[in-house]
Amino acid sequence: MMHIGSLEAGPRGTIADVAGVTVGHCTLAQGAVQTGVTVIRPHGGDVYRDKAPAAACVINGFGKSVGLVQVDELGVIETPIALTNTFGVGTLANAQIRAAIAANPRIGREEPSVNPLVFECNDGYLNDMQAFAIDEAHYMSALDACSVDFERGAVGAGRGMSCFELKGGIGSASRVVHIDERTYTAGALVLANFGRLPQLTIAGAAVGRTLHVESEAPNKPEQGSIIMLIATDAPLDARQLRRVAMRAAAGLARTGSVYGHGSGDIALAFTTAYTVRHDAAFIATPPLVSDARLDPLFQAAADSIEQAILDALFSAETVSGRDGHRRISLKHALETRP
């Protein structure tokens, strides 16, 4: 797979190049059930007690996520980030709440409630969402599996996802940036489930127009989505993190997306440079990067999101699911094109 942009990748080429970030999956793949859960931990501690500064950007709001309102208001996340299918959101929110209470029994009593953070995409083309196959144990399994080494492609929440009418799913990438004399890393992870085949653009080339695969009705409105996560170890505040999150749209657009009416396109950026202690009266922060020095991080966000989308496409395998529906992998489509 080609390298996007001029910035170098980190050693793993994934979001786990940002120290402390781990990812875990739980995959359900049996007959009409092709779905799963993916969990991203911003650090190895208790995220409720040591919250990660974060901000989100809603590019197109056709989505059913939980937790974005409070992230927008307070500028922190206080649970790991969970990804799944549309009908699994409520179940995972409950699982996150139970996990937080188990670690902090005073939640909802002597202490405030907890803000679960769950993102979704509709995997209903391949997965029978009406089976409601996701349960709380799948969240805990994905949480327990979190590691710096994780699979990409048709795994976890990405199992049933489609991208440009091909097999989509989980993709990840990283970029190293230099700001004055300091070096930082930005890492991306996407749940890619969007786009129509003729739009697919790879490194500026209109590849989708050269592929001939089983396609849905050409005039059917787009009903996909993409969730884009950006982690960095650069010291930023929530306002700056929202600016970084906005640049995910640039990377998304380069792949051919037009943010269709039925697509929920949401980006969230967080930093591992410091945490916000739950019960602190005052918050100690390191010196923040000046706004005038953010351009390298903006480039890293755009490039790593574009790379992560391609990673999802190139990593995914062909999957068959509900009612005989099938999505072939990009690799297979490229190998069999005329």
Automatic annotation (TrEMBL):
Pfam families: Peptidase_S58. Keywords: Aminopeptidase, Hydrolase, Protease. It comes from the Bacteria. InterPro entries: ArgJ-like_dom_sf, Peptidase_S58_DmpA. GO terms for molecular function: aminopeptidase activity. Belongs to the peptidase S58 family. This is Aminopeptidase. It comes from Caballeronia glebae.
